Amino acid sequence: MKIEVIEVKSSRERNRFIRFPYKLYKSNINYVGELNISIKNKITKKNPFLHHSEIALFIAVKDYQDVGRIAVIHNRTHLDVYNDSSGFFGYFDSFDDIEVAEALFDVASNWLSKKGIKSMIGPTNLTTNDSCGILIKGFEYPNMISMPYNFEYYDQLMTHCGFQKEVDLYAYKIDGRLIKKKYSNILERSLQAMKNNGIVIRPISSKYFKHDLNRLNKVYNECNINNWGFMPLSEKEFYEMAKELKMIAPLDLALILEKDEEIIGFVMAAPDINQAIKYVYKGKLTLVGILKFLWYKRKINKGRVMILGVLEAHKGRGLDLVLCHKITQALYNLKIYEADASYVLENNNSMNSVLKKIGGICIKEYRIYKKRIA
After folding, report:
1. What's the mean per-residue pLDDT of the chain?
2. For the chain, is the Cβ count within 10 Å smaller at the N or the C terminus?
3. Which domains are present in the chain?
4. Whether 100 contacts 152, CB under 8 Å
5. What letter would DSSP give residue 153?
């Protein structure tokens, strides 16, 4: 039967879009989906990103069954920063059917072309500050918080549809105990240099949460400005991202470096709440779902180091090593003894080097693709 691609217009269709992965991955033990409410907040006007940019959602239907989905993204901030006539796609999921993938990407290309877009990049869900990429290595591991998962055939679908590699992203398994064991001398010298130079490290303040965030927002944007595809976050976008993170991670896992009351570096981590979400039936926070989530949340023993940065003027002083050490200590205090550090761009030589030096092992790789559409 012919494949029909419909645009999501109603709340019922939106729910079909959100729940499709649970149908696709129902037999896969490693897939953990997002909570329905989390995705809904991202794809509706509750997301401040959609106050300045635009998305369209599509579902592929075959034999009266949903067989794929895709979000198409007109990211005006990206266009303002890079002026490269690029659009994006995200939330791509499909059965192993090239015709389904082609139908979805054809609709996505047409939607973007009408807006003057000449190339399509992705997946990003919805920006490079969110989860992104197609998993190409590490299928034996469950996906951690705010990280994607997909079947191995996705890469073939992408290449069959004319996409080529744009950039790869890495996820490292790290053990912070090795930092002190292997680099105790460097660590001690760095800590002493911090003390001599009036550099302190502390968690973000709960009392002055907004004040700390406003200052951190600028440093976060500055630290990442040269990273591939980075999208500067507005004050409102950064606050919403931090507020969402605060709901799942204690402030003890959000550390900042300060010198003369100016933030010069940061690191943030989160417990891997996917270990609890996987017991929530189809991502629905019913009463039973909430109780299951709270029960299994107590048993979380893994985490994810999500972002780390040091201003350029303060690099080369071992501060990144100190941040890695301190955040793993903070995780240990929560009885979390295993962590992933992700994402790390393949061309981020300094961060790849630091993680390898402290015994990090690259266990997952993700790929972002690009295709000319005009």
Report:
1. 94
2. N
3. 4-170 (3.40.630.30), 173-364 (3.40.630.30)
4. no
5. T
